[in-house]
Amino acid sequence: MSCRNVDGRTDEIGIKICEFEKQEKGHGTKLLRMLISYLFDELNFERIILDTNLDNKRAQHVYEKLGFTKLRVRYDCRRDQRGVLQSAVDYELKERALMTRESE
Description:
The chain has helices at residues 27-42, 57-65, 95-102, and strands spanning 2-5, 10-14, 47-53, 69-79, 85-94. By secondary structure, the protein is of the alpha+beta class. The protein has one domain: Aminopeptidase, CATH 3.40.630. A 5-stranded mixed β-sheet has the order 1-2-3-5-4. 15% of the residues are buried. The mean pLDDT is 88.
């Protein structure tokens, strides 16, 4: 996991579970909840942003389940390690949206 203070009110996060046998077990969701709570409750950020590969439907499902809102799709915005163009989906989460989502 990583996080980067963008402007004092916004933090950008990222997560990657590299070991295949550890994926699809809910660890990412639990860890993201902990990080998000820390960023909002302890560090007082107002917004969290992240992006993921357009083909990573599992990550998109997790982010949307946590209350993130899809902002845009950026087509052919970067090249992977083989030089193949990849597209990304940008997301944001505002603290109020998270609190609303958790109370449902």
